[in-house]
Write a structure and sequence with these properties.
about 350 residues, Glutamine Phosphoribosylpyrophosphate, subunit 1, domain 1, 9 helices, binds 2-acetamido-2-deoxy-beta-D-glucopyranose, Ntn_hydrolases_N, Aspartylglucosaminidase, three-stranded antiparallel β-sheet, seven-stranded mixed β-sheet, alpha+beta
């Protein structure tokens, strides 16, 4: 058995999902689990659930809180500028009983990405709106149009340009992206890709949420501002159903965070739900799912999942985080940490 936690973590970073739920009874609903230790988000979701709100209300509330708090500069306005210095937002909500999805990607100049995703969920027959057109939709739905720049995002962008646009995500182009800014042209031969993209908690992240309300309905969601210095137009796994998050009321739900360009190849959250459908417990489902990516990883990746089943099974055994720390928050916030990752292949 090979312990893979250290060899595959790009940065041995701290990951602390938070969770709120009742404890000690057969009936574990309602509850909410989120990736990372964004406590305000967890608490606000809990307020919704404990006052009779729906799972979708809780997911929206957690996401909105992080968008307002600009969690880690990786959720909401004013973070993760792309190559042009612009911040755009990606978000989705999925409803367990109906499998209905509302999602936006590349949303420009509107701060409330997860609330716009909810409008796609509830006010359209569609599932996914993108870019400038998603902005037009949001404006029709009454959202305010405003800049998503912050001093921090502009400084981050200017520093990046001053540093020859390093790091960036170009391959097989000239001039050499390892030491020059664009514009680039494609080259036919393969330029060896020796550079390491620094993917860590600070330059990319997502709030991922799994919630169950009093009636036992499940919902999941995500919100992110993407990957810092990404090529403009890049969309990661977060808003894609089955990739960033997935839920089926008959089984359970899952949400993920990590290197989205890799994670979306594996449809990890769909896979976690399918493993539960086959009879695995939530933690086993999370571990088996992450093994898929770990077995085939060619470079350092980080990937993490929170998973819960339709019975509201939760706790340290019902969700699994590949990286260093786990957290659990009951009605009064509480964080438990797992001292080492334990995923083996
Ligand atoms: C729970 O079910 C009851 C009865 O069907 C309904 O009135 C209520 O709105 C539901 N609550 C949520 C949070 O969905
Ligand atoms: C949490 O919310 C409080 C009250 O809105 C706010 O003052 C605080 O900055 C938030 N915390 C974070 C980490 O954003
Ligand atoms: C639930 O409560 C019991 C008894 O107070 C405690 O030992 C246990 O750690 C709690 N479980 C969780 C998941 O917090």
């Amino acid at each position: 058995m090979l312990l893979l936690c250290l060899c595959l973590v790009a940065i041995t970073d701290e990951v602390m999902p938070s969770m709120v739920g009742t404890n000690g009874s057969q009936d574990s609903k309602p509850f909410v689990i989120i990736t990372w230790d964004f406590l305000n988000a967890t608490q606000n979701a809990w307020k919704q659930l404990s006052s009779g709100g729906s799972a979708v209300d809780a997911v929206e509330s957690a996401g909105s809180t992080c968008e307002r708090d600009q969690c880690d500069h990786t959720v909401g306005w004013g973070g993760s500028p792309d190559e042009n210095g612009e911040t755009t937002l990606d978000s989705m909500i999925m409803d367990g009983p109906t499998l209905n999805v509302g999602a936006v990607a590349g949303l420009r100049r509107v701060k409330d990405a997860i609330s716009v995703a909810r409008r796609v969920l509830e006010n359209t027959d569609h599932s996914f709106l993108v870019g400038e057109m998603a902005t037009e939709f949001a404006k029709q739905m009454g959202f305010k149009e405003e800049s998503l720049d912050s001093e921090w995002s502009q400084k981050t962008h200017n520093d990046w340009k001053a540093n020859k646009c390093q790091p960036n995500f170009w391959l097989n182009v000239m001039p050499d992206p390892k030491n020059s800014c664009g514009p680039y042209k494609q080259v036919k031969r393969d330029v060896p890709n020796t550079g390491k993209h620094l993917i860590n908690r600070e330059n990319h992240d997502t709030i991922g949420i799994v919630a169950m309300d009093r009636n036992g309905s499940l919902a999941v969601g995500t919100s992110t501002n993407g990957l810092r210095h990404a090529i403009s137009g890049r969309v990661g796994d977060s808003p894609i159903p089955g990739a960033g998050a997935y839920v089926d009321q008959q089984v359970g739900g899952a949400a993920g965070t990590g290197d989205g360009d890799i994670m979306m190849r594996y449809l990890l959250t769909y896979q976690a739900v399918e493993f539960m459908r086959m009879g695995l417990a939530p933690q086993q489902a999370a571990e088996e799912t992450l093994r898929r990516i770990l077995k085939r990883a060619h470079r350092s990746h980080i990937a993490a999942l929170v998973v819960a089943d339709k019975n509201g099974q939760y706790g340290l055994k019902s969700y699994y985080f590949y990286i260093k720390l786990m957290g659990i928050v009951l009605q009064a916030p509480r964080v438990l940490t797992l001292s080492e990752a334990s995923l083996t292949v």
